[in-house]
Amino acid sequence: MATTKEIRLKVNGVEYVRSVDVRTLLLDFIREELHLTGTHAGCEHGVCGACTVLLNGKSVRSCLLLAAQIDQEEVLTVEGLAINGQLSELQNSFWNHHALQCGFCTPGFLMTAQELINTGEAISEEHLREALAGNLCRCTGYQTIIEAVLEVLSSQFLSTDPESDTVDSTGGRSA
Amino acid sequence: MKPPPFEYFQPTVLEEALQLLRQYGDDGVILAGGQSLLPVLNFRLTQPEVLIDINRLESSTDLEVSHIQSSQSELSFGPLTRQRDLEISSPVRKSCPLLSEAARYVGNPTIRNRGTFAGSLAHGDPAGEFPLVTTILGAEMLLLSETGSRRLNAEEFFLGHLSTALNGSELLAQIYIPCSEALTGWGFHELDVTPRALVAAAALVTLDREGKCSKARLGFAGMGPVPMRARKAEALLKGQRIGKEIILEAAHVAAVQEADPISDEMASASYRTALAKTFLVRAIGDAMKRLEERG
Amino acid sequence: MPEFSRFSGARIKRREDPRLLTGRGSFIADISLSGMAEIAFVRSPLGHAKIQSIDVREAELSQGVLAVVTGADLVAEAEALEATLHEVPGLEHMARECKKAKWYPLALERVRYMGEAVVAIVAENRYLAEDAAEKVMVDYKPLPVVANVADALGQDAPLLHEEWGENLILKNTFKNGDPTKAFEDAPVTIKETFDTNRCTGLSLETRGGVAEYDPFTKKLKFWTSSQIPHMVRMILPDLIGVPESHLHVITPDVGGGFGTKGQIYPEDVALIALAKRLNRPVRWIEDRFENLIAASHAREGTFTVEIAANRDGEIVGLRGELFHDVGAYLSFPYGVNESIHTGMVLPGPYRIQNYEYTMYTVATNKAPLGPYRGVGAPMATYIGEHLVDCVARELDLDPIDIRLRNLVRKEEFPYTSVTGLVFENGSYIESVEKCREWLDLDGFRHKQKLERKEGRYIGVGISCYVEGAAPGSPFFALWNASGFETVTVRLTPSAKIIVESGMACPGQGYETTLAQVVADELEVDMEDVSVSLGDTTNSPFSWGSHSSRFMVVCGGACLLAIRDVKDSLLQVAANFLEAEVGDLEFRNGSIGVVGAPEKSVRLEQVCRFALVRTDLWPDSTSPIQLEATRTYEPPPLSTPNATHAVVVEVDEETGEVKILKYLVVHDCGKMINPMIVEGQIRGGTVQGLGNAICEHLPYGEDGQMKAGSLMDYVIPTTKTSPNIDVVHIETPSELALNGCKGMGEGGAIAGPSAIANGVADALSHLGVRVTQLPITPERVWTLIQEAKNKGLERS
């Protein structure tokens, strides 16, 4: 009966083996099965971006993926950004810029922004606004989010040590 | 909003996928990018019995599933070519910049990481960017089933609102797009203020050595049940030197005479027409500008 | 205010952020209890219908189902919500005349809006609950739909509530001055009818709750994503028969409130009733479709308003008929709040003393209206400010100049508005002048003329408002509520400060700002202050987060409490140091004798002395508590103000409106954390932008709500929002204890009108007036076509 599937996957560097109902959304798997509740359900139809995670380094909507599809893959969620209790540069930038208020959309923004940062490319404000247009926020009006991400992007681009922001295969930072 | 129950298959070889498609026919749906399918499932607007997940299909000598292949004359795309990969592909940008540009308007980068070009076409949204540009570009689609294959051009492929020539047992396996000819300029414009696509216009203008239009391909998304080729307008431009007045005339013919849009919740027919006309003027204008820049 | 101000007024990073940034926030959907089951509601697909029968047999047999209940099943277990008004001196008629209706936890016999909950399914998880929900068969007999205000008030209109005899919930007339004469005499009068769109708060986190009932202790624990936990606890006993002493209400992190979560919903009551029934924890997490069709709506109305002016631009009168389309029931508890507030604030910050209006609060077959950021002020400001601009154009005056002519001036404060609102002080003129400067108005007008010749249409939109914030108790009496706040502050033996407030915080950084204030009072580090919010077992009663009231009222109560504790500390320290209380001061975590740096004692020592080693006290000393609970009643009204200035560009061919630049000059009195203030301003303004341009919840004639997803209910994104410059003016309140005036709603109040005015200004050569929201591209395009067709184009 093809309604359950066994999956083996890595989330934030930890390997999990589970049997899932094939219709379980990746979002619900992460939240209810793995108890990683930082990834949020905002709309369940792919528009708001609150459920964004990195799948093999690429941002995806976990509400539009089935857990069954993620066998053998690597996922990074917001819980995987801070390493050894140290906030990442991006998280610190959000903190400094007051880029969050209620915090519900924040994990989604962090993951989408992290993907951009991982490309190592310089991005203009206009392009950044386009790139983040799939993440909705109702509290901040976005300006401080843009400022926070731009600061990390520009500091990275100006960084003299190209090795300092190495990323691993999941898209996370290496310590 | 959780999906209803279904059975799930994840074929790894093409034969298996085609066999499942034949076996389940209309009770089964293909899961490729999932960016159109999952919302519909989560809303329970559709309740298929079977999901055939093709994301693990491996390429074979018969089928390249994701890598964009380019030759002198055409580009080809597989069932798993992601919209994002198409968007950033250098061969596509070089040989078919209209396609690259249109890709930028599809959803957002995260959606495009997962969404597939083929899936977008199979979805058949007449307001969508990809159905429009594939129609303008003269794309051909290869439909595979267990019993055989058929090759259709875009206009044979798009049949109606969210309706394509694909029957329940077929997979859209390849899309072939001819490379842009020399001396061809392109333009693309759409209303980009809401998540739902409304109206878009695309233009490809090829000039002869004297600088007159030898070929024009003009079209609209969102102006009918399928992407619309504005053939009368194209004929108007053919053989002419393209200037401001003739552009306006062509856009008028295309939007007002040839198109027949509906009025609905999203917009009235007259507004759609106004947008179509404006965007086509701008698209042809951009095409000419690009030609001029190339000297 | 304390003289020492290390933190107050500073841009302190929020202490809430680390947990939110690392995904360790605790929102309602993050709460997981052992044995917890999940609810899905079956909701009415129709706008108005009789429920003939409900067949739940197949649903009951569905996998994983624990219970399937209908409205009839719950009648014995839970009461209906019924919002009422309270008799207030001078306004007794409102309480007597205001209609009321029972809004059952699950619909009983009849549904009155699409999305009304009819059946509740409890199952092991949401997937299974939704499977079962699909198997419920409800036999509806459609009834005629009351689709809008005109239908509702028409002859022989179908009735939503038979016992009312009509669909009019409340009518109220107001008159002050002599508007009849003012209009007769005025050389210029302009009348327009405005249609405002139905919007919703659309917080990223939908509604939800978790309820757990212990049948042995008979105690109920209720986690709710709410702005008003204590009010919820106060109201629940009447609804579900559990006394307050046995009710524990907790608000976890709340993912945005905006007023939508400042009420109790029937679903909350159904959830609790089910938890009691099942003796298992039950959770309800609303999905986005439900949120759009059933979480409270706001702002819809049709307003015919007329303005009268003299030739020199002096506005001499206003009058109007205000029709509010509030849906099928009155939200609980603040039902008619938006209707009442709109008429009250329509005259704005202007010197208008002749005003009359009639307000009609009308029921229709739509989701009930609830409070949403601004609560009537956004519509009032949109209408008033647009009419002011219309007068300006009629008289060939600049919109800025006409405002300078009519705004209340500094010399006139305190100014009592024509509707009895007292404006304590403010910076109305100053804020407009700053906008003029920022715009380089003369330069802009010149540029505007030139651009117009090239077929490019740029315009400037100005919007001024004064906000009625943090109202005192008399204002809330109409709803049998009050405006005070109570805060407990206590010190621990190691001199840590614990602040307890019953406030819930949907994202405005209350934990941080209270800590700033308290740390300054005692001259300690912020890390020494711990703030606890939103839990009814360890906080005094709170009226909750709304009306921009937090810092004025809760901040005020906190100040009173901490100052009581300071007095106690000084007494103990005086004993310790053998000095007079009057000779002591707080400094650097110690208390010392003024002018004697060596004579001081650390706060920890004082606290231990007072709390732990009372045996060491002299016999004559009474026991001292380092704890205080104080209540603060704010001034009757706080009145922050702001002016918004926006430069827009209108694409004549597509109707698209692009925002080129945006300025907010804002005065909320004393600011505790300017960074948080700016966040509120920008966030509110972008909500106002959405209200202006793209948000709409349209209902068809058939009662169907058509925006059932975020593809249809469109809110601003990073691509469609501008950068917003913010300039602060601080005109402190002399009346509020901490000099603050309250803030938070202003951006949403002025946003729609600034945009509307900008578009009209950009198209002023066409004589365009923006009388309908939202100003979608199609609407702008239509206005342009209509104007051109009428030959209204002038240079």
Molecular structure report:
With 175 residues, chain A is of the alpha+beta class. Chain A folds into two domains: 4-80, Ubiquitin-like (UB roll) (Roll), CATH 3.10.20; 89-158, DNA polymerase, domain 1 (Orthogonal Bundle), CATH 1.10.150. Chain A has helices spanning 26-33, 89-97, 106-119, 125-131, 143-158; strands at 4-11, 14-21, 52-55, 58-61, 74-76. Chain A starts with a strand and ends in a 17-residue tail after the last helix. Residues 160-175 of chain A have low confidence and may be disordered. Chain B has three domains: 7-53, Uridine Diphospho-n-acetylenolpyruvylglucosamine Reductase, domain 2 (2-Layer Sandwich); 69-178, Uridine Diphospho-n-acetylenolpyruvylglucosamine Reductase, domain 3, CATH 3.30.465.10; 185-294, CO dehydrogenase flavoprotein, C-terminal domain (Enolase-like, domain 1, 2-Layer Sandwich), CATH 3.30.390. The model of chain B has no long low-confidence stretch (mean pLDDT 96). Chain C has a seven-stranded mixed β-sheet with strand order 3-5-1-13-10-11-12. The mean pLDDT of chain C is 96. Chain C is α+β, with helices and mostly antiparallel strands. Chains in contact: A-B, A-C, B-C. The interface between A and C is large, with 57 and 60 residues.
Draw up the topology in text.
The complex is a heterotrimer of chains A (175), B (295) and C (795).
Chain A: E1 4-11, E2 14-21, H1 26-33, E3 52-55, E4 58-61, E5 74-76, H2 89-97, H3 106-119, H4 125-131, H5 143-158
Parallel strand pairs in A: 1-5
Antiparallel strand pairs in A: 1-2, 3-4, 3-5
Chain B: E1 7-9, H1 14-24, E2 28-31, H2 37-42, E3 50-53, E4 69-70, E5 74-77, H3 83-88, H4 90-95, H5 97-104, H6 109-114, H7 117-123, H8 129-137, E6 140-145, E7 148-153, H9 154-157, E8 158-160, E9 163-164, E10 171-178, E11 184-190, E12 200-207, E13 213-221, E14 228-229, H10 231-237, H11 244-258, H12 269-294
Parallel strand pairs in B: 1-3, 2-3
Antiparallel strand pairs in B: 4-5, 5-10, 6-7, 6-10, 8-9, 11-12, 12-13, 13-14
Chain C: H1 17-21, E1 37-43, E2 49-55, H2 57-60, E3 65-70, H3 71-74, H4 92-97, E4 110-111, E5 117-123, H5 126-134, E6 137-142, H6 149-153, E7 168-176, H7 179-185, E8 188-196, E9 199-200, E10 208-214, E11 219-224, H8 229-240, E12 247-250, H9 266-278, E13 282-285, H10 288-294, E14 297-298, E15 301-309, E16 315-325, H11 337-345, E17 355-362, H12 377-394, H13 399-406, E18 415-416, E19 422-423, H14 428-439, H15 441-453, E20 457-466, H16 473-476, E21 485-491, E22 497-501, H17 510-522, E23 529-533, H18 550-577, E24 584-587, E25 590-593, E26 600-602, H19 603-611, E27 627-632, E28 641-650, E29 657-667, H20 674-693, E30 724-728, H21 746-762, H22 777-789
Parallel strand pairs in C: 1-13, 11-12, 16-17, 22-23, 29-30
Antiparallel strand pairs in C: 1-5, 2-4, 2-6, 3-5, 7-17, 8-15, 9-14, 10-11, 10-13, 15-16, 18-19, 20-28, 21-22, 21-27, 24-25, 25-26, 28-29
Helix pairs in contact in C: 11-12, 12-13, 12-21, 14-15, 17-18, 18-19, 20-21
